[in-house]
Amino acid sequence: MRNSKFFQFLSKMSKGDLMFEDNQVVERPAGDAWASEFGASSSAAAAASNWSSEFMQQQGQQQQQQQPSAPRDWAAEFADGFANINIGDGATEEQLEEAWAAMGGAGNSAWANEFVNDAENSAYADWEDLYAKNGAALPRQHTRGEYEFAQSNPFLADPAAFEKGKDLFKRGLLSEAALALEAEVQANPQNAPAWRLLGTVHAENDDDRQAIAALDKALQAAPESLEVLLALGVSHTNELDAGEALSYLHRWVSAHPQYRDAAAAAGPPPDSSQALSHTARLFERIVASAPQDAELQLGLGVLQHLNRRYDGAIAAFQRALELRPGDYSLWNKLGATLANHSHSSEAVAAYRKALDLKPNYMRAWTNMGISYANLGEYVASAAYYVRALSMNPEAQHVWGYLMTSLACAGKGELLKLVEARDLQALQGALPL
């Protein structure tokens, strides 16, 4: 069973390697499956939480309708709680790749259809149908809209809301910090620093949709803010919106007082298809003359990753960390790049450093879960997702990651706790 298509399907779901597109489950293109710092698909993961549960119920009903002599296939085992599957112990990335190659590899564009057409695995049609049905009801990943304020906020009308928000952020109490900062920007809509910090809070709380909405407001209030332009470049990279990310990174370097002349001299790219390589070369030239600028190194790292030059991205982030070794967000970005470059063990070490610097860094806890899923350690992966959810229970995509990791680990008895959102029971069952 470990080398079956079912195991690979669940494994790829847990690692974010599958995405919902045009009412079908497809593989995410190479270079797009970053860890959550740079692009986990929250809508796809939220869908996973719904259709995994619905599939269990559906298969349970079908099992009751079967004759007693009917052979027990993987669907029946799944409905009974994975009792005989044992797919989560010791599976390595190499084993997954060998199994994937046996199926025809990533070059087989019809791999999803093979699941449906293969008689032995015909129940895959149920998985894909449920995934499509639930995914279609969710908002599309790149939809941008107005910032959504909390309906209940104890900080409203508090004249010290901004200072309290900054203090709560420093203490790692991100959900409370968001409320305080929301109160401030509702009272003072042109407070660009408050909007910017609110965007940072949401980015660290693994909610780039809200982060982008807040940062857009910050940019409206302060159109030349270098911090906001760079943050928008990173957040749009997280959302897999390469075009927007590239635009903001180019605006950042063009607005920078030290680099604007070099950007102007470089001129526009010959055509839109060369925009990424053109901007990356611009950053490389500037970095050569200003190697001590950590933010410049950060921007180059993001561009290198967008350009799928992972070794270059890693080198840029490492150089930035030499300049700012206490920057937990840079450690997280390094970890995300290492993970996407199939160095999950090294990624775990980078995430641990980020968490040493900021223990309540929810995004790094989520990324730890993704890396352990990459390593095939699904129980550990689930435990890290639970820790992340204890900091932000509203992160629906992380609930989806948790659901699929538990499925891969054969922990079907815990799925009801996920459906009930019973964090206390899950923390007891999956301690760290």
Task: Give a verbal description of the structure.
It contains 23 helices and two strands. With 432 residues, the chain is mainly alpha-helical. It has helices at residues 5-14, 42-65, 74-79, 93-102, 111-117, 124-136, 161-170, 174-187, 192-204, 208-221, 226-238, 242-255, 260-266, 275-289, 294-306, 310-323, 328-340, 344-357, 362-374, 378-391, 396-409, 415-419, 423-429, and strands at residues 18-21, 24-27. Helix content is 64%, strand content 2%. It starts with a helix and ends with a helix.
Biggest sheet features: 2 strands, antiparallel
Helix/sheet category: mainly alpha
**In which range does the helix fraction lie?**
55-70%
Outline the low-pLDDT stretches. 30-34, 39-53, 55-93, 95-100, 102-143
> Compute the gyration radius: what is it?
22 Å
Annotation field: number of helices: 23
- Give the helices and strands as they follow along the chain: HEEHHHHHHHHHHHHHHHHHHHHHH
Strand order of the largest sheet: 1-2
Binned strand content? under 5%
Give a count of the beta strands, DSSP E runs of length 2 or more: 2
Quick overview of this protein structure:
The chain has 432 residues and is mainly alpha-helical.
Q: Helix and strand layout, with pairings?
A:
Layout: H1 5-14, E1 18-21, E2 24-27, H2 42-65, H3 74-79, H4 93-102, H5 111-117, H6 124-136, H7 161-170, H8 174-187, H9 192-204, H10 208-221, H11 226-238, H12 242-255, H13 260-266, H14 275-289, H15 294-306, H16 310-323, H17 328-340, H18 344-357, H19 362-374, H20 378-391, H21 396-409, H22 415-419, H23 423-429
Antiparallel strand pairs: 1-2
Helix pairs in contact: 1-21, 2-6, 2-21, 7-8, 8-9, 9-10, 9-11, 10-11, 11-12, 11-15, 12-13, 12-14, 12-15, 14-15, 15-16, 16-17, 17-18, 17-19, 18-19, 19-20, 20-21
